């Protein structure tokens, strides 16, 4: 009886792990960068083709994106792809 309960728990746990694995596997919505703008806190936001915004901050030494500081750097990232978590979550389009 005790063993059965353990097996039940193990099975449930294994299923949970499998679904989290699938969740992460599907979190790969590649969206192209179509433009940039500054938000109200003066942080750069990449405008993705799906009309979702994604912060592309340059906060050394934690986040290093020196290219975001210059216009030519930003232009060089146009049409690059980012994973869009908002698409995965089915969030409505952003306004900018
Ligand atoms: Zn999106």
Automatic annotation (TrEMBL):
InterPro entries: DUF3565
Protein name per UniProt: Uncharacterized protein DUF3565
